[in-house]
Amino acid sequence: MAKRIQRSTPKAAPREAGRRPDVGAAPRRGRSGRVASGSVTDFTVQLATLSEAGIPVVRALTILEGQTRPGPFKEVLREITEDVSGGSPLSEAMQKHDRCFDRLYASMVRAGEAGGVLDQVLQRLAIFREKAAELRSKIVTAMMYPAVLVFVAVAVVSAVITIVIPKFDEIFRSFGVELPEVTQILLNVSKFASTRWYVVFGLPILIAVVHVMLMSRQIGYRRWIHGMMMRVPLFGPVLRKTIIAGFSRTFGTLIQAGVPHLDALGIVRDTTGNEVLRDAVEDIRRTVREGEGIARPMGETGVFDDIVVNMVDVGEETGELDTMLLKVAEAYEKQVDRGSQRLLNLLEPLLILAMAVVVGFIVIALFLPLLDIMGAIGSQ
Question: pLDDT per residue over 5-14, tens digit each?
């Protein structure tokens, strides 16, 4: 089956030359505003449903464009409908709007057009986007509570240090008591935060800005950050499983749609946001181009688990590589779901413990001088 698929779309190979396929002399349009990923997913599901019902593509696009609310995406659909009505293939019309329809999307549509199975490919695209959105939603939801907890804790402690503790400093000075070392440390921190607030708040912002700039411009820095994140205890294993699940679903969906293996690997490489995975996929692609299979170079990258490599090996032997990859994706998406929940269950008590330590330190540091003051008042 795998070999038959490799031959199914011979015209797709010339488009592999660059990371973004050339659309020709036609100007790129539809760049006036950003389009939500959810809007594209809803459009894909609806277009797949209409195509499966036997409605021609132009009419389906006209229907969907008519029911879309005014905005950037409606303009994109209007231009795509005009291009397709004028005789352009749907994939070529979508390539002009690469902010909405990336290379993966356009390549799958092109493969569906070439094989005469556009309705089936659209169904697979709809499932792919829904699964990807569901996985992202689960991860964001799992991380939301710890993020809110940290934000509230930092805000409360900052308010205490900059507003409340200076009042206690005035009280201690008025009584002239000798302060314990822990209290003096707390007062020094409070004084620095109050007088050098621009450093306390500006330094994290500066670090964040530099990080964003380096992430957008320096491949080496991105590779180092991505590799380090995959080695972080608790979080790293979940991230690694997320990467494997995304690779498996994307690669499997492309092969299932009839995209040749080399082209599919190139698309996966260009659409992934993780530099470690990008390097691994490029190594796999280079070896496959030389005539070898996929399983062995996957194992040599060190990114993929042995079970994934073995399932891919079996898939290549049986001609069911796409099926095996999608099974891997399903299994790892479930592991990511469970891992995210376990991570949340571990982070919650750890964050509460950290907050208790900070609050306890502040209370003890303030309470010790108060005992001395109360003792001095009682002795008078």
Answer: 333 333 333 3
In whole angstroms, give the CA distance from residue 317 to residue 180.
Answer: 73
End-to-end Cα distance, the chain: 96
User: What is the b/e burial string over 329-359, where b = at least 16 CB atoms within 10 angstroms of the residue's CB?
Assistant: bebbbebbbebbeebeeebeeeeeeebeebe
Cβ pair 245, 336 in contact under 8 A:
yes
**pLDDT tens digit string along 35-58?**
777 888 889 889 988 988 888 999
Which is nearest to 264 in space by CA: 251, 274, 275?
251
Q: Average of pLDDT values for 365-376? A: 77
- Residue whose token pair is 């180092």: 224
Top pLDDT among 373 and 333 is at 333
Measured distance CA(351)–CA(324) in Å, rounded? 40
- Separation of alpha carbons 83 and 89, rounded Å: 8
CA distances from 130 to 39, 40, 319 (A): 11, 10, 26
For residues 251 and 245, what is the distance between their CA atoms, to the nearest angstrom?
A: 10
- Read off the pTM: 0.72
Q: Under a CB-based contact definition with an 8 Å cutoff, are residues 190 and 161 in contact?
A: yes
- Report d(CA 254, CA 124) in Å as an integer: 9
pLDDT at 253 over 70: yes
Provide the 10 A C-beta neighbour count for residue 113: 18
Helix, strand or coil, per DSSP, at residue 294: coil
Q: What are the structural domains of the chain? A: 11-101 (1.20.81), 134-380 (1.20.81.30)
Which tokens belong to 211? 């990080």
Kindly report the number of other CB atoms within 10 A of residue 231's CB atom.
11
DSSP code at position 180? P
Instruction: Decide if pLDDT at 83 tops 70.
Output: yes
State the Cα–Cα distance between residues 267 and 143, nearest whole angstrom: 29
Give backbone dihedrals phi and psi of 32, rounded to 5 degrees, phi first: -75, -25
In this model, does residue 324 exceed pLDDT 70?
A: yes
pLDDT value, residue 26: 40
C-alpha distance from residue 224 to each of 42, 230, 244, 267 (Å): 36, 10, 19, 23
Collect all residues with Cβ–Cβ distance below 8 Å to 303 and sequence separation of at least 6.
240, 243, 244, 276, 277, 280
